[in-house]
Amino acid sequence: MRTIQEPSRRIPVIAEVDVVVCGGGPGGLPAAIAAARHGAKTLLIERYGFLGGLATAGLVAPILGHHAHNSSQPIVEGLLREITERMHALGGAPTWEETLARWGINFDAETFKRVADLLVQEAGVELLLHTLVTDVVVQDGRIAAVIIENKSGRQAIAAKVVVDATGDADVAYRAGAPTKQGRDFDGKVESMGSFMHLAGLPSLTDEARRAAVEQVRQAMAAGKLRFYNPGFLGVNDMRPDHTSPNMTRFAGDPTDGGDMTQAELSVRRDVWDLVAFLRDQVPGMEGVYLAATSPQVGPRESRQIVGGYALTGQDVHAGAKFADAIARGSWWVDIHCPLGNTYPVHLCIVECPRQESCPFWAAEHGRMFTRQGDQGTVYPPDGDWYDIPYRCLVPNAIDNLLVSGRCISATHEGMAGARVMGTCFAIGQAAGTAAALAAQANGRPRDVDVAQLRAALGADGALV
Ligand SMILES: Cc1cc2nc3c(=O)[nH]c(=O)nc-3n(C[C@H](O)[C@H](O)[C@H](O)COP(=O)(O)OP(=O)(O)OC[C@H]3O[C@@H](n4cnc5c(N)ncnc54)[C@H](O)[C@@H]3O)c2cc1C
Predict the structure, then answer these.
(1) Which residues are CB-contacts of 432 (< 8 A; sequence separation ≥ 6)?
(2) Sequential DSSP letters for 368-398
(3) What pLDDT sits at residue 369?
(4) Which residues are within 8 A (CB) of 10 and not within 5 positions of it... i.e. 6 or more apart?
(5) Which of 150, 113, 139, 123 is nearest to 33 (CA)?
(6) Which of 75, 94, 212, 325 has the CA that lies 20 to 30 A from 459?
(7) How far is the CA of 167 from the centre of ligand 1 (A)?
């Protein structure tokens, strides 16, 4: 490939802080709030004009993983409960108690944005929106500066501790910390997807709703629509005439600009095909319209750090507990086909009819994730959870770096559980608290006293 030499240049250091958090999603937002509340001078950098990550930019909902498996016992509270209650106060989410009786926390994305603004400002977090973290300067094994780009140009931030919550481990990767991506045997990641907001829905009887979904299913089975599931009704239904389906699927590498471009074009085509089908073919749906597509297609899995421990599918299945636990997860090994196969292929192993011809099946056959016998092998035990060890957040290289959210250290199978937003929130609160503790000490998250961290989290209402 032809190359060009980029000239070096001097750039201004526009901020010197204790903690810089890169990325304001479910992993980064609570990290910034927690760090600031623990007294750290904290800067949060986000590439979009709003916070929330895939909760807002992906329109992803509901927030999953806040209670134990098949149980209403909460396993994540702290900042997740706080943001839920603040959204409830603005009419954008149910009460916390109501959410415990449900599959997940339904919420309104616009309310999430507003509450996120309020929480970061109240905590005293400095905020830079519309700003992309593009690079780092590493000196003596530490990140001496995070390089950013926005309309003001190219600038630098100096921080004692850096939290990478970009979802793609952008910072760790640029810093040269070891990273991995996807399945051990071929590097493929779970398929991406996007949410849409459909509005103008009529009030339907249960029978008519079932019939409408069945019509979509038949169109999928006939290859006329390309989705992985037909359940377009009743998803995150915060308003009676509104639904927010999670149906699209695209296989690709979220760290590749070309793949991300194709993903956007592909899912937008699929969404418009659905809207046309509903209007033209499904009785009562003539008035349905597309209120919004998500600003970005969402990666379920991307680049991750190699840390002191990698959470595994076996840990999810066993409800593993760790002495250095800093968060809890309960979501299962929920793998969306990395080959992008759509209906009837939904979840790997449990539901896939193509198993014998699938490379994942071949690689896993005879190990834990078999279809024979108990299909529950991908789930944690009922009423239980698995711990997220602090070691998963600490990269094996770069002294002043921590990660949060879906770029923690985990296998493909482990990440399939730990990636959901409730778990990312819990990880984020821990990452921010640890970053503040490290900034008060020697700036090395690796040296944080985990007993002190766990005590701080407990005192702040987190469940550890
Ligand atoms: C299709 C789909 C369906 C899903 N369904 C659910 C569900 O129903 N329930 C659930 O709980 N979870 C679900 N998830 C998973 C969940 O949304 C993600 O795993 C979670 O949002 C990860 O949080 P995060 O903060 O690590 O990353 P993200 O949510 O991706 O947030 C990363 C943030 O960093 C910012 N950023 C990235 N790079 C840079 C950079 N270089 N500089 C500055 N800012 C940057 C981004 O703009 C973003 O705000 C789903 C995911 C997908 C894709």
Answers:
(1) 19, 21, 30, 31, 32, 33, 34, 35, 36, 38, 42, 163, 404
(2) S--SSS-GGGGSPPTT--EEEEGGGGSBSS-
(3) 57
(4) none
(5) 123
(6) 94
(7) 6
Q: Kind and range of the H or E element at 148?
A: strand 142-150
Ligand 1: centre distance to CA 139 (Å): 30
Q: What is the pLDDT of residue 372?
A: 42
Q: Specify which residues 325 forms β-bridges with.
A: 389
Point out the ligand 1 atom lying closest to the alpha carbon of residue 194. Answer: 1
Q: If 0-12 CB within 10 Å is exposed, 13-18 middle and 19+ buried, where does residue 373 land?
A: exposed
Within 6 A (CB) of ligand 1 lie: 22-28, 45-48, 53-54, 57-58, 60, 62-64, 104, 132-133, 165-168, 170, 192-193, 246, 298-300, 405-406, 419-422, 424
Contact 348, 354 (CB under 8 A): no
Distance from the alpha carbon of residue 294 to the mean position of ligand 1, in angstroms? 12
Residue nearest to atom 4 of ligand 1 (CA): 60
In the block, which residue shows the tokens 């503790």? 437
Q: Which of 298, 289, 387 is nearest to 76 (CA)?
A: 387
What residue's CA is closest to ligand 1, atom 27?
167
| Ligand 1 centre distance from Cα of residue 418 (Å) | 12
Closest to 318 (Cα-Cα) out of 248, 370, 381: 381
Four-point Cα dihedral 40, 43, 49, 52, nearest 10:
-40
Full pLDDT tens readout for the chain, 464 residues = 999 999 999 999 999 999 999 999 999 999 999 999 999 999 999 999 999 999 999 999 999 999 999 999 999 999 999 999 999 999 999 999 999 999 999 999 999 999 999 999 999 999 999 999 999 999 999 999 999 999 999 999 999 999 999 999 999 999 999 999 999 889 999 999 999 999 999 999 999 999 999 999 999 999 999 999 999 998 887 888 999 999 999 999 999 999 999 999 999 999 999 999 999 999 999 999 999 999 999 999 999 999 999 999 989 989 999 999 999 999 998 999 999 999 888 767 666 777 667 777 777 655 555 544 344 478 899 999 999 999 999 999 999 999 999 999 999 999 999 999 999 999 999 999 999 999 999 999 999 999 999 999 999 999 99
Strands 242-243, 179-181: parallel, antiparallel or unpaired by DSSP?
Answer: unpaired
Q: How far, in Å, from the CA of 9 to the mean position of ligand 1?
A: 33
Host H or E run for residue 42: strand 42-45
Give the count of beta carbons closer than 10 Å to the beta carbon of residue 234.
12
* One-letter amino acid for residue 67 of the chain: H
* Nearest protein CA to atom 37 of ligand 1, as residue: 166
What's the 192 CA to ligand 1 centre distance in angstroms?
Answer: 11
